[in-house]
Input
Amino acid sequence: MLLFALLLVPFATAAASFFVRPRRAMEAINVAGFGIVFLIALALAAQVLAAGTISLANSFFYADSLSALVILLTASVALVCSTYSVGYLRDDLHSGELGDDETGKEQTAQLRMYYTLTPLLVFSMLFMAVSNNLGVMWAAMEATTLASIFLVTFYGKVTSLEAAWKYAIIGGVGLSMALFGTVVAYYAGHRLPGSDSLSGLNWSVLAQHAAQLDKTSMRLAFVLILLGYGTKAGLAPMHTWKPDAYSEAPVPSAAILSTALLNCALYCLIRYYILTSRCLGPEYPGQLLLLFGLLSMGVSVPFVLVQKNFRRLLAYSTIDHSGIMAIALGIGGAMGSLGLMLHMTFHTIAKSLLFLSAGNVYQHFRTDLFVKMKGSVMRTMPLTGVVLFMAMLAIIGMPPFSLFQSEFIILRAAFEGGHVLTGVFFVLFSIGLFTGVLLLLAGMVLGPAGDTPVVARRPWRDGSLLALAVVLVVIGFWVPSPLLELTREAAKVVSGL
Amino acid sequence: MLMMHFLDLQLGDRIITLMAALVLVLQIAMVTQRWIVVHIRIFAAQSFFLAMIAATIAWFNHAPHLYAAAALTVAVKVILVPILFERLVRRMKIHEEIEPIVNVPMSVVISGGLTLVGYVVAESFYRPDEPGLGHNALAVAISLFLIGFFTMINRRKALTQVLALLSLENGMFLAAISLTYGMPLIVELGVFFDVLVAAMVLGILVYRIRETFESMDVSRLRRLRG
Output
């Protein structure tokens, strides 16, 4: 029942936003819809914790603690971003960013597109997380790309078309590889009983009989899947669409893409990692993941160090973090998996906060470039400045913020698992990232006041920022025990221990 | 009775091999083609033969859900998508030819090489102990995939890249029907829905790029660096 409601509500939200006229109604429907989705996600997490795995409709839908965690994170990001975007888009509307059509028709059309596509994007992500069938999971993942292409072209600028083109083509090629991988994985299980029915491609069935899967096919399948969903997760060298898409999309969409969608892509990788490691042993998928993870961390360091544009800086930081999570998955084991799940949770909170506060900065200064910013953020927008600085410290892994803990767990797992070289590179790249982000963002936040006026209070955006910031601070010291329990259970799904 | 079944399978295998060969020839024809409209029609023809392969496998293997997949292929890739794209071409008034980066004779040689790679890779899936259709079809599928990639890199016009992406997807479909006699129907439905939506979305995107840049040459999209 909960699962149906979880899918129905965002879909209904999209449909309702498409049909209503006034802007306020669209805003209200979106915020209310995502609020309900968030409550359902909470209830689902509670149910999974209490009663274990839920499966519905002949186990077409399937939710274990791993799916519940991803759903909860997706729903919370969606809720925060939807309240934030009310303020953000109103600001765009007043400042003429949405075109200067006098009658306001063009602007309303654009807003309708935003308020329809965002729930559709969330709908496809949630559908992906609850579908048991690997083929359906693929279709939902492709749908996320399709739903978000026109979010990237939202401002209709020359550069946003370019970004959207890269996003569509690189994403399309990546997902076609993932589809090939799905086909090969289906073939790997074609000797299992009942493989020609719909459930033959069900993850739960394949995972149960993982040892009997065809080994050669599974080997090929995992490579294709890693390249395919790795493209969506932005692992190097398939990461090139990320900085463009994140810097061109409206900031709340960019925040959803860089946290919730990243989690979803990783979720797909995790599902196949479980299958492959049960079939071939953890060594083979682990080594591949470590390779791509280290490459992603390594690639992002030079780009961060010489970055001139702060939204692209955030994108490279996301590439770095997806690398970290790939490494955690590659290390595997009980501790690596726990590190992965904690990191996923903490990164989602910190990175969305960082994106949203960067959105405030962008809207105030009307530039992405460090050199063009007159005056420091802290002086002109005190609240945003404080929050941005805090989120930045969190994202580079500064204690007492929680990303320090999760990265430390991952690092410990690396050394204990005998991946000494990985651990050493992990530390080196982290130092590079730490320096780059700290220098550039601290330079932007701190410093003398310029001649830009101090901004007035902006309830929608400041409210969302404060709520997230409180969560970020609290979670650094005290993780609520149900959440901790959920991450532990999810880690158990990954490691099988 | 058993003999009859065996002969049937052999006949089926021959028909499929023939049609798979046609699909491959059309893919290479796409590599050499210079006119966008012809390119679109070749894609439609290729998809049509693909649907025929699916129908043949459905007939000889008694896999009725493949008929549905074949019908969907005809509806989406032979009729809807080509009509959509031809209208787009007419609306954008494209007269210029496609300029490939590598010249045509070289492209054909490269495609031949990629076909060889396809056959080598498909070899590892061949099980002599399992009588089945479409061992050749798998090799063709992998070749389609690789040549599709090559075409994407080789062409600079946005619409041809989209067509290459769709032919890549054709390769995927062929792989699915030759390896496993097609995925479960609901999955196929999802895939076809995605293909249709993707074609529309990419069509709109191509149109907007053309409007903004007054060209479909994607090598002009180079503002975003670093």
Summary: The two ends of chain A are 30 Å apart (CA to CA). Chain A touches chain B through 51 residues (CB under 8 Å). Residues 135 and 182 of chain A are 7 Å apart (CA to CA).
